[in-house]
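Lab notes, practical 5.
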Amino acid sequence: MSDSLLDKAGNVRDGEELAVEPLREWLDHNIGNLEGEMLVTQYSGGASNWTYALTFENKSLILRRPPKGTKAKGAHDMGREYRLQNSLKPVFDKVPTMLGYTDDESVIGAEFYVMEKLEGIIPRREFPRGMTLTAEKARHLCEVALDELIILHNVDYKAANLDHIGKGAGYAERQISGWITRYQKARTWNVPKAKKVMQWLESKLPAKETICITHNDYRFDNLVLDANDPSNIIGVLDWELATLGDPLMDVGNSLAYWIQADDDFFARKTRRQPTHVPGMMTRKEVINYYCKKQNINPDDFAFYEVYGLFRLAGIVQQIYYRYHHKQTRNPAYKQLWLLVHYLLHRCKSIIKSAS
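Output from the prediction step:
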């Protein structure tokens, strides 16, 4: 497989540069065995934590830090993210190896952690140019991805001493009340009140609760595929939202991003991963596959689908709120209120079908 398929970082964005000299000094002292000059590049995105590639003659590393203007103990807690992955690695081997963490902001102006760089393919909106999968292989990739999520959901978190990563019991109720509150606080005049969706979710809270380790952002663009065998997953990335939660809500979160080939024009415009190519599962097939493997009745999945879509509507509206109130000038956010309308429309369609 050509190196051109490997995921690569690009130029560092203006205003997001790292303090190279103190960082190199910290790396030499805390990690060591780094030869040659350090080349710093940055991965696209940036609405969440900032991610950099640090390339040396003999080794490549990844550095993660919060964006400017955030506090370490808030939504971008690098220490928690580092410790969680370090604890999870022995029982879920797709987590990258953690190499070092510091809360000393004098090094680069923020806390950060460093981990190994996994060299592979990350399926973003499209597969890399030159990479094609047959329908059979695309289907197999779906199965492998879901199998990894199932493995994660079946980790004995108590035996792994991971009880501390979340509150656990009462998760579904906290999520619904939490996202209702966040949506209401971020609501602008041009998006729906969504009262019917909120009331339906509150009335459909599952009577039985299962708690496991959940990733909460499990998508193809957070997977690293083996360049020599793209059906082999060598890593799972972006653990900042991981907690102890409901496994079916985790699947619901993933489905909210799952755009299939026969979706309408608006949905296809929002696609962020290659779930549309021939052979990829439909959302219904994802549900059936997961439920069959976990011995769950797939007929009771409407709550989890609506939850995932409503949560995504809340996330999108929080971003749009910042644009609406001129807290950011990013033109990509200008029309996000339309996406909120669409996601809530999908919520109502599922509710209607389930009634």
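Observations recorded by the TA: The chain has two domains: 3-116, 135-354. The domain at 3-116 is CATH 3.30.200.20 (Phosphorylase Kinase; domain 1).
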